[in-house]
């Protein structure tokens, strides 16, 4: 693996590599800030090095020491969107393999993009404040000074002082009553310590603190949540987590992170889940009461191998994280529920893929598999494309060489790059090398047009998915389309969808939104009355039905849309609903955003502002 310059970091990561991170944080809920000290053990990668450069963003740096002695340092001018380089001069030049320990003391500021601080009123329990982090893609630098690139991995020791329980992306090692006098803290503060012995990149550094309790959901798994939701969350997850782990292990190799836990966050969390090692941070929208959305956990679990153990070397190769993870998630679904579910999930994914390409434009840079992010913010490129285009590329290779051969390659790939980072070109070389002595597989792989897959924008050829589970959904949608054209005697009734899974309802509603002519308003209301979608507690269903209504410009659904936008923070739902509401009633969209902007995580708030054209 040749060293590759990550265009989204200001650190000199080709000259130094962080081997260990020891981080000490003190939370202040009253000030919505962290006081921190971090010791970075850096290994020199070349001779004659005289300066360490770290990433920071909106940090108030107080002091810097090198090997225990005060050092000369400065914070450079801000470079959007990457922050400000922290330049630390070394007393004397160091040579390759030398170790340097850089200690930095700092405070976060109110411009920190990695943290969301919530008042008691913003939580379900209404009694205690809450804080959680989201560092992917380049937000760790606003939490602590670091080499904020996925090409660098380090082991971690955490000490986090808080008056409320703490979770972090490591293994708990204790709770301590002693709080050093040098650390400003609030009454009742305890020190929670964690260790992460497996090297991980900065974007997987995660912390959360609030009124959090836990319950077992498997022999090596806990669910963490607010006390009021804990029992409901336990019931939702307890039969599935260990099944998913064992299934993934049968595809790849043994789970390495010791425990696999899930933290159900407040509703402002901007993603479905975040694959922080040892503890997935998850949206409460997966707790639907009917287990219909727990496959999100299969996806985040799959990241324990794809992304966490084996990582993309830069965000330009994000598909290596998400494409592989989506592929493994669907293989888990196929093994647990039957192969038709692999295809059914892929059909749903293709719809999201197609919509993302249409949103960017078919020729847009961000619709490629390998993208150019020089000078760009990785958050702007975030979409379903790396997930689904990546999945479809891997599924193409799976079919090309044959499932039996491909299944032999999977553990080889994850063993080759275990605890490492790689590029798309490393993946290509490893694949071709693995099959080099297999003449039949080599001949098949010779047909792969790598440049087209890597660099051609837009959609590839759609695979011939098994539509067995989708056919009934398509047929019902066609009935509604005929009704929409006044060419049908079809009379909808609740029995139309009796026995359907939530996934089938999603496919039906997405088929409706695919039609060139939106549903008439009276039919939207008939669908609402007959199928009860407006009363659904499943965000996947309700968001799709509201999409149908907004495309029909049904004013009766504008208020409900504004209501759910004040209760959901997951960007998968929030962004498309805001875009549609903006087309229907810009004044209401802006009013809704203004009312709820402080509820949203900074990442979500920023992209919605761009979607709505708010400066």
TrEMBL record:
SUPFAM superfamilies the UniProt entry points to: ARM repeat, Leukotriene A4 hydrolase N-terminal domain, Metalloproteases ('zincins'), catalytic domain
Reaction(s) catalysed by this chain's protein: an epoxide + H2O = an ethanediol
InterPro entries per UniProt: Aminopeptidase_N-like_N (IPR045357), Aminopeptidase_N-like_N_sf (IPR042097), ARM-type_fold (IPR016024), LTA4H (IPR012777), LTA4H_cat (IPR049980), M1_LTA-4_hydro/amino_C_sf (IPR038502), M1_LTA4H (IPR034015), Peptidase_M1 (IPR001930)
Residue positions binding Zn(2+): 299, 303, 322
Keyword presence, Chaperone: no
Enzyme Commission number: 3.3.2.10, 3.4.11.-
GO biological process: proteolysis
A single GO cellular-component term on record: nucleus
The Peptidase M1 leukotriene A4 hydrolase/aminopeptidase C-terminal domain, residue ranges: 468-612
Cofactor binding, per record: Binds 1 zinc ion per subunit.
Pfam families: Leuk-A4-hydro_C, Peptidase_M1, Peptidase_M1_N
Keywords associated with the record: Cytoplasm, Hydrolase, Metal-binding, Metalloprotease, Nucleus, Protease, Zinc
GO molecular function terms attached to this record: aminopeptidase activity; epoxide hydrolase activity; metallopeptidase activity; zinc ion binding
Predominant location category: cytoplasm
UniProt subcellular location: Cytoplasm; Nucleus
Cofactor: Zn(2+)
Top-rank lineage group of the source organism: Eukaryota
Family under the similarity heading: Belongs to the peptidase M1 family.
Name used for this protein in its record: Leukotriene A(4) hydrolase
Organism: Tuber borchii
